[in-house]
Amino acid sequence: CFFRKGKTPRRPPKKPSSNQKDPVGVYCRVRPLDADEKESCIEVISGSTIQLHAPDGLKANRNGEFKETQYSFKKVFGVAVSQIELFEEVARPLVADLIHGKNGLLFTYGVTGSGKTFTMTGCPGQGGLLPRSLDMIFNSVGPYQAKRYVFKTDDKNGMETQNEVDALLERQRRENQPSVPKTPSSKQKPEPEFGDMIKPEEACKADGVDEDSSYSVFVSYIEIYNNYIYDLLEEAPYDPIKPKWNGGGTPVRLNTESIPPQSKILREDQNHNMYVAGCTEVEVKSTEEAFEVFWRGQKKRRIANTQLNRESSRSHSVFIIKLAQAPLDADGNNILQDKSQVTVNQLCLVDLAGSERTSRTRAEGSRLREAGNINQSLMTLRTCIEVLRENQMCGTNKMVPYRDSKITHLFKNYFDGEGKVRMVVCVNPKAEDYEESLLVMRFAEMTQEVEVARPADRPICGFAAGRYQRNQERGGPVDRVINCLTNPHDDVTLPRLIEALEKRHRVRQMMIEEYNKAADMVKAMLQELDSSLISKDNFIHEQTSKLGEKEKVIHNYKSEIDRLEKKIKMQEHKIDILQKTTNIYEEDKRSLQVELETRGQRLQRELCEKRRMEQRMQGMVTDTQIKWEKECTATPVRPLHRRSRSAGGEKWVDHKPASSLELDTVLQPIIPNAIKVSVPSEKVLSKCDKYVLTHQEVASDGEIQTKLIKGEVIKTRGGGQAVQFTDVETLKQELTTGPSRKRRSSEGSPNQGKERTDGDWTDVETRCSVALEMRAGSNMGPGYEHHGYPKRRKP
Question: Which of 453, 457, 506, 504 is nearest to 476 (CA)?
């Protein structure tokens, strides 16, 4: 048969965290200067503020570019602060939250040689945050710890429980396995004991521990080296034939086992929490045992000697403390065998490798590669913090690049709201670390602005509280008494056992009676609740029917409202159309009114212009008449020819000019009804500037028309003389003795048939450009040019 490849099943949704958010707690610790160092670039201003000032040499080199800057933290710890004070302020609240069912993350950050490892681990007599956290955990839950192997890991970041018998068998099976031989080492430092780390008077414990639960502590220790995860608690067989070398020239305290450790991978469990798959988790029952396990892994951690630090951490170390908790059963004797009731919380203590500049460390080979990976992982951490800050402050939803580095990918759940996050910034006040410290301060200041969702409280078990205390008052489990029986003829233990059993039997009988009474009361209450529930169901049914009727009425009303709204919209649409039409008509009306007013004004202007033109023309006619009368009077020119009409037809009459000018050539007619005129010779024209021709004729209606043709004498190109006629004027006069005749003209006259009195003259102004050019020396005689004809207008 064939199987279809199905889609990857969707994971269950992540449990919602609380809406409340807490900022990342950032603390600052200043380490003291060494004996050979005098200049300090960091000054503690107050309990929450420090000030950085550039050293003198740096100011001289950069012309005073660096100014004094101040940075604020949740709290600043000066050089005189002890380890216990630092623990009380920073780590103790995280340990208390771990015991009460909440996760926590604490990491140290700073440049190389700033005291991060000392702050986390400490030294004999000055235990750091890690051993003090272990001491507080076991001081708090020590009396309530389960037996070894009752809690068992399931290799999927979860815990399972088993009864004490199975736990005992598991213990025997593991003890019978051959132990892995430890790696021989010729040069090993003596392991410090936990008793030397913390003084007895500095021990502390948490308040409010749940006595009705059983606890178990598991620890694991990993390191992230060159962006690979290694298990520091993993035991590998030793092969003396193939010794392992570190591959570098600088002596390094590495794991001397022959087989190199295998890198681990990160996985995500069913609750979307990241964990290291295949990591060794050791169950510890005391602070000393836990610290011994830690020191066993610490010896395998990669540490190298550099120019800046004699024991410089070349990897990020992560010490994980898991606290498994399960409630006791109703009797308070054994752990409840229910995996869903088991809760696992963890506290991660991270010692980050210090950032360093290769120009100062002068690293080469593997040291240079290690420094590059360390700086790259710290840069990824900075980028994740920046994106988180931008998403929270600007409301964006950018993807946080957790997967770019193993250290950020492992702890991404903490920044998503799976626990509290705190950071201790370690700084070295020496002048050489000023620039690196400045970058660390900026990163710390930015980290304080990131808020992490507060984790939700765990659900409370349904059993009554005080089960453990009642069980202790009853004498505790009988198994403890049975274990004390070594002699069957013991007269002291057997009576005590019989008394304890009788007491337990009486208590059991009392509890059974109380249980029966309580069961009867619960049954009665259930019956009452059933009856009230039935009555409420009936009431709800009635109300539901009424509600259905109301909903029908509401539906009808909604339908009517919808119909009316549609009608209203239609009427509003019509009103809009009518309004637009009205606006168009009003606009047309206004435009027509404006046009009417404009045309009226134009008509008035035209009338005024017409009246002014008439007045002007009348004045011009009068002036022209007077002018030409004066010119005609001043110029002694008489008509050359007269054409008269008679009954027999037209005849031409020749006249001599009054100035006795010689006429050489006959001029062709240049206007209608023109007579023949004589043109003076070139000799005569050379003595004149102006020339006037007069032409008179008698029309059939008895009018005498006199035409005055005026011109100027100009020189030609050939050296001759020419007359250029410019104006023609016509004067009309009616005869007093002759009969009244009608004027025959092709244009017609509006005054035909009307008689005129003697002395009435009509002046029609007709202007043209007529040029007559006469050239001397031509075979044809003096010629002429005709550029147009005068246009006659109606009288």
Answer: 504
